């Protein structure tokens, strides 16, 4: 690659930040069984770019009809070779797990065309695992997968994939195959099915799924769906047969990809389990230079719960921008709604019917009280003998024990004339929370209402100075919808007033000496009046989500305070010196902030395990480990 081409590739990285791939999985009766390892982890020293099987982000490359590049004496494999070089070079950067061709490799399926295509595929062989299925131009289109020998089968039959670490087998006829990929810490299944799958082929494919019942599956075939110019896809006759005979009854198949028709399109169908199946058409043979080896990347991001899709031509990308022809510049990247888009997929929710996510077991208190833990409260039976069933009222006077043995027990009381629903037991919890329980607070204002938990007068925590540093952690979830005005509601605090401590820098002498609150924009605000400084350094988070548990950690190393949300340091942490907390011997409170000598509104939402440690912890030592 020239220097200009190299820079173009780097520019493309800035353009394409959605690199994620798709998983592949099992099969049953096979002609060939792969003996290689289950995941491609070859290091660069082995001649291949490294693919990270555990990263939550990976990419599946999809290559549609290349038939006009392999068309008798007008063949030109250069665009496809450029595509393959790009995928090999970018495998590590984009974490590309696999490439799948959707059929119609060639125009006429002659021995000469097939041989040239097979030789071109050697550009990527051994660098990125892949599958190739037969389209109607690669074999006699009047036949199904029981057609017997062909030039296609001789070059693109099971023997081509036998050395690939992802390959698991092929149907006895050799025209259908499957691969198992390890990506994002789990295995996935990719089925590559013939242009016309016979009843035998459907039975084989069902056997492959049955042999791997917990693997999410991507089905690829040549003729699946067609689309009008509006991009709304509809199943073709062959696609309807696949839908009725295989896809709709197998919840594992969540993505089905086809070529053959143009323009590209997409739709979402509902299977028998009442779950979405995304059906996509990818084909650019009608575009300039027969599609110019156009590649589509499906970027799976299991953290963001999306699949980002983009389409571009590496061949044009490698050209000097100043020397690209008008059509090359126009075709380098396609950005229409059927070419560049994102799919929202809650992977755990979508796959729970066949592969439910394992929920971590509760961890005992003894496992989560590191050196320096001064208080730890949890709301299951280990934290309070009076813990009730989900939805049951938490009565005034109920005690939540401090499990450290330091005596910082919390006692429940209601604000103003709040009713029994102001505080109830809940089984809801953060997935990484040690205790599988929480408290549901139903606080608010107009009128002020809610419930609080406070330490007793004389509790050791009331007078703790934390001059050597501290870590305060809690879990919370805001209701969805987040109804009513809950601006400036308190989450936790000490009751002491900064004015009583002689602090002069705050906006009001009645402000608590330490409090965690929620602003009208749903920003978390942590404000502390240090024991040593006359200051009020304040941390502000981003707008926190509703309907989702989050972990909050406030970490002070004796010099300054940093807020973390879900293990990520937020941006607006103050640089002001901050040593210790001015507690003034006043009670610690969960569920509200006391101001003007009274509690106003109470917290609205769920609060889980809460822990205070008298030293700075790293993220790997948080209640939920983030390293």
Q: Key features?
A:
627 residues; alpha+beta; elongated; disordered N terminus
Strands, helices and their partners?
Layout: H1 3-15, E1 57-63, H2 78-94, E2 96-101, H3 111-121, E3 130-132, H4 151-156, E4 167-170, E5 177-183, E6 186-192, H5 199-211, E7 217-220, E8 225-227, E9 233-235, H6 237-247, E10 253-258, E11 265-270, E12 276-281, E13 295-301, E14 306-312, H7 314-317, H8 326-331, E15 333-334, E16 341-344, H9 347-351, E17 373-377, E18 399-400, E19 410-414, E20 423-426, E21 438-442, E22 451-455, E23 470-477, E24 489-497, E25 512-518, E26 523-528, E27 538-543, E28 550-556, E29 561-565, E30 568-569, E31 588-590, E32 594-595, E33 598-599, E34 604-613
Parallel strand pairs: 1-2, 2-3, 6-7, 7-10, 10-12
Antiparallel strand pairs: 1-13, 4-5, 5-6, 8-9, 11-12, 13-14, 14-15, 14-16, 17-34, 18-19, 19-22, 20-21, 21-34, 22-31, 23-28, 23-34, 24-25, 24-31, 25-26, 26-27, 28-29, 29-30, 32-33
């Amino acid at each position: 690659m020239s220097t200009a081409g190299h820079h173009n590739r780097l520019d493309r990285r800035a353009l394409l930040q959605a690199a994620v791939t798709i998983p592949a999985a099992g099969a049953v009766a096979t002609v060939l069984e792969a003996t290689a390892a289950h995941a491609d982890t070859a290091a660069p020293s082995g001649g291949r770019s490294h693919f990270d099987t555990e990263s939550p982000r990976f990419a599946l490359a999809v290559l549609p009809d290349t038939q006009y590049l392999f068309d008798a004496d007008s063949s030109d494999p250069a665009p496809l070779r450029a595509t393959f070089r790009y995928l090999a070079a970018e495998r590590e950067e984009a974490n590309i797990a696999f490439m799948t061709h959707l059929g119609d490799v060639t125009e006429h399926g002659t021995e000469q065309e097939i041989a040239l295509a097979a030789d071109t595929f050697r550009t990527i062989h051994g660098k990125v695992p892949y599958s190739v299925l037969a389209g109607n131009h690669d074999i006699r289109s009047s036949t199904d997968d029981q057609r017997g020998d062909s030039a296609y089968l001789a070059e693109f039959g099971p023997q081509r994939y036998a050395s690939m670490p992802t390959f698991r087998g092929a149907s006895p006829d050799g025209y259908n195959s499957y691969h198992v990929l390890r990506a994002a810490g789990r295995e996935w299944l990719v089925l590559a099915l013939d242009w016309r799958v016979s009843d035998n082929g459907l039975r084989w494919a069902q056997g492959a799924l049955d042999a791997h019942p917990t693997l999410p599956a991507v089905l690829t075939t040549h003729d699946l769906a067609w689309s009008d110019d509006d991009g709304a896809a509809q199943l073709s006759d062959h696609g309807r047969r696949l839908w009725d005979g295989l896809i709709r009854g197998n919840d594992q198949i969540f993505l089905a990809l086809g070529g053959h028709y143009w323009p590209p399109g997409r739709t979402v169908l509902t299977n028998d389990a009442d779950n979405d199946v995304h059906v996509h058409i990818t084909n650019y043979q009608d575009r300039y230079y027969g599609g110019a080896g156009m590649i589509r990347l499906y970027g799976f991001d299991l953290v963001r719960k999306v699949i980002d899709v983009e389409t571009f031509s590496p061949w044009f990308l490698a050209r000097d921008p100043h020397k690209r022809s008008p059509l090359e510049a126009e075709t380098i990247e396609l950005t229409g709604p059927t070419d560049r888009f994102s799919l929202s997929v809650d992977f755990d929710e979508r796959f729970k019917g066949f592969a439910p996510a394992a929920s971590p077991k509760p961890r005992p208190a003894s496992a989560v009280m590191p050196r320096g833990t001064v208080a730890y409260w949890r709301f299951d039976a280990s934290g309070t003998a009076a813990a009730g069933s989900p939805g049951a009222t938490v009565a005034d006077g109920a005690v939540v024990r401090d499990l450290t043995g330091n005596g910082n027990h919390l006692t429940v009381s209601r604000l103003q004339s709040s009713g029994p629903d102001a505080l109830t037991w809940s089984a809801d919890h953060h997935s990484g929370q040690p205790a599988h329980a929480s408290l549901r607070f139903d606080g608010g204002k107009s009128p002020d209402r809610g419930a609080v938990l406070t330490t007793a007068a004389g509790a050791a925590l009331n007078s703790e100075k934390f001059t050597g540093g501290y870590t305060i952690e809690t879990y919370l979830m805001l209701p969805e919808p987040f109804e009513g005005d809950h601006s400036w509601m308190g989450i936790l605090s000490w009751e002491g007033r900064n004015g009583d401590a002689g602090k002069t820098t705050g906006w009001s002498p009645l402000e608590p000496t330490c409090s965690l609150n929620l602003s009208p924009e749903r920003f978390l605000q942590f404000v502390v009046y240090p024991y040593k400084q006359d200051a009020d350094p304040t941390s502000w988070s981003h707008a926190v989500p509703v309907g989702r548990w989050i972990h909050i950690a406030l970490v002070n190393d004796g010099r300054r305070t940093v807020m973390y949300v879900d293990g990520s340091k937020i941006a607006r942490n103050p640089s002001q010196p901050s040593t210790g907390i001015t507690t003034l011997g006043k009670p610690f409170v969960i569920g509200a902030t006391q101001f003007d000598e009274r509690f106003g509104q109470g917290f609205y939402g769920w609060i889980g395990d809460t822990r205070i440690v008298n030293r700075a912890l790293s993220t790997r030592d948080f209640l939920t480990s983030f390293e």
